[in-house]
């Protein structure tokens, strides 16, 4: 049901999260326990298994402190379908907008994609053999016009002699060239299947028709449309990608994919509900339009979080064991401003810490996906070496922390604007002015010079930083 990675112990899960996220120890520990509990539940006796509900988590913290990243990385560790939604985008039933069940349908779509990729990888080798034959047929058509798919199915059919032998020898020579990628840029003509017909189906004033019905209607009409072959002239490299996708799809059983995907969504799915504080009814009034009842949105969301059956185009999915992680800054509202029933569905509450200057220093230095490492990789693509002194990293961290304090606290996202302001000029000069094999060393003085001019001009900093 779950991947081998999901069998990691809580300490090992935290260790994986530490590779990408600095600090936030309590949040990491709680999500690690929640993930491990899924494996534990699947090993409980069947009679009790259905009674064990996931401990949904409510994360409380300012923007940019790592709430979304923790949930996203957790889903990657578990190879689980993951959906992030913003609570403020939902509207109460009866108003125009997305209905709350759409997040479950999106989760199932993710699960189908994950399972499809896994299944296609299992048949990849067989599909590659068929694709090779199709490309070969386009280059050197076989004598007698026998289809590649027929040859792959029947190994004992009589081979033609005489001129066919010469044809086969020529085909074998080209087969080797195809395998050795010697003909990647040669263009060939291939048949690509496409559905003809009506394009996207729209509906006027369809308030009474829910989103699931609309999706099912579009899929039904799409299946009714005749499928035609369109000839396209593409390179062999492009043809291989197009044909591999088509042939892999033919070799997998979509009914099996749908069945596994539904089980995966039900037992492994993670739904991250961001900005949940914006649908809380705060005493100060807060934000939101007068026509949309925030409490109504919460009550519409409650059955999904509690556990209900949702219809999707792939079948009915139960949300009883989907893990819900909600998050919000709660600057103008408190968790207690949520309706009591919804509060009760998020029993684990974690407060994330604001980022310190030392945290910023660790963020630009330690994680596997640190911005400094990302920029170094971009310059390396041009043959240019980019290095940062330790003092420059300290200065970048100090500047980001200062800008957050003086302008607006947007957490670690501030580093993106700081790094952009620092390195954009170099990125523009590569490769025209700064050629290959050059080396750029970012020093503390350089950081002060680049960022000092912006931070000194408060009006300008409002727009840039």
Summarize this structure as a short list of keywords or feature phrases.
465 residues, alpha/beta, Rossmann fold, Helicase, Ruva Protein, domain 3, 3 domains, 5-stranded parallel β-sheet, 11 strands, disordered N terminus
What does this molecule look like?
This protein is of the alpha/beta class. It has three domains: 4-113 and 261-351, P-loop containing nucleotide triphosphate hydrolases (Rossmann fold), CATH 3.40.50.300; 124-251, no CATH class; 357-464, Helicase, Ruva Protein, domain 3 (Orthogonal Bundle), CATH 1.10.8. It has 19 helices and eleven strands. The protein has helices at residues 10-18, 25-42, 46-49, 67-78, 102-122, 124-139, 148-153, 163-179, 211-224, 236-251, 254-268, 294-306, 340-344, 357-365, 371-380, 390-406, 414-429, 444-456, 458-464; strands at 57-60, 82-86, 187-195, 227-235, 270-274, 309-312, 315-318, 323-328, 348-351, 385-388, 439-442. It has a five-stranded parallel β-sheet, sandwiched between helices. A two-stranded antiparallel ribbon has the order 3-4. Strands 6-7 form a two-stranded antiparallel ribbon. Helix 1 packs across helix 2 and helix 6 crosses helix 10. The protein is flat. 30% of the residues are buried. The model is unreliable at 1-6, 148-157, 201-209 and 286-291 (pLDDT under 50).
């Amino acid at each position: 049901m779950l991947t081998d990675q999901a069998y990691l112990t809580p300490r090992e899960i935290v260790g994986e999260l530490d590779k990408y996220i600095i600090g936030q120890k309590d949040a990491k520990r709680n999500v690690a326990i929640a993930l491990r509990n899924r494996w534990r539940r699947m090993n409980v006796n069947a009679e009790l298994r259905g009674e064990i509900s996931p401990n949904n988590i409510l994360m409380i913290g300012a923007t940019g402190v790592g709430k979304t990243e923790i949930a996203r990385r957790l889903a990657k560790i578990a190879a689980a379908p993951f959906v992030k939604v913003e609570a403020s985008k939902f509207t109460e039933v009866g108003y125009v907008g997305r209905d709350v069940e759409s997040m479950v349908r999106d989760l199932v779509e993710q699960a189908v994609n994950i399972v499809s990729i896994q299944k296609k990888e299992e048949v990849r080798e067989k599909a590659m053999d068929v694709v090779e034959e199709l490309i070969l047929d386009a280059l050197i058509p076989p004598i007698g016009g026998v289809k590649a798919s027929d040859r792959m199915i029947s190994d004992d059919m009589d081979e033609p002699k005489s001129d066919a032998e010469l044809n086969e020898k020529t085909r074998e020579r080209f087969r080797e060239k195809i395998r050795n990628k010697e003909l990647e840029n040669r263009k060939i003509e291939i048949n690509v299947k496409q559905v003809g017909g009506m394009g996207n189906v729209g509906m006027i004033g369809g308030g009474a028709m829910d989103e699931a019905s609309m999706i099912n209607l579009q899929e039904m009409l799409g299946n009714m449309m005749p499928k035609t072959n369109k000839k396209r002239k593409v390179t062999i490299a492009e043809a291989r990608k197009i044909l591999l996708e088509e042939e892999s799809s033919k070799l997998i059983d979509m009914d099996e994919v749908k069945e596994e995907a539904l089980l995966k969504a039900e037992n492994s799915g993670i739904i991250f509900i961001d900005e949940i504080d914006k649908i809380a009814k705060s005493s100060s009034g807060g934000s939101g339009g007068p026509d949309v009842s925030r409490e109504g949105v919460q009550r519409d969301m409650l059955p999904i979080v509690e556990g209900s059956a949702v219809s999707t185009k792939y079948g009915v999915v139960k949300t009883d064991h989907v893990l819900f992680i909600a998050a919000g800054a709660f600057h103008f509202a408190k968790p207690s401003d949520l309706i009591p029933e919804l509060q009760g569905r998020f029993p684990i509450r974690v407060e994330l810490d604001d980022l310190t200057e030392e945290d910023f220093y660790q963020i630009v230095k330690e994680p596997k996906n640190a911005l400094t490492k990302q920029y170094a990789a971009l310059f390396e693509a041009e043959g240019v070496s980019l290095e940062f002194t330790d003092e420059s990293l300290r200065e970048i961290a100090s500047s980001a922390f200062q800008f957050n304090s003086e302008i607006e606290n947007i957490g670690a996202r501030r580093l993106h604007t700081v790094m952009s302001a620092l390195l954009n000029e170099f990125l523009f000069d590569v490769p025209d002015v700064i050629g290959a094999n050059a080396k750029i060393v970012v020093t503390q003085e350089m950081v002060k010079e680049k960022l000092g001019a912006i931070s000194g001009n408060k009006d300008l900093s409002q727009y840039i930083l």
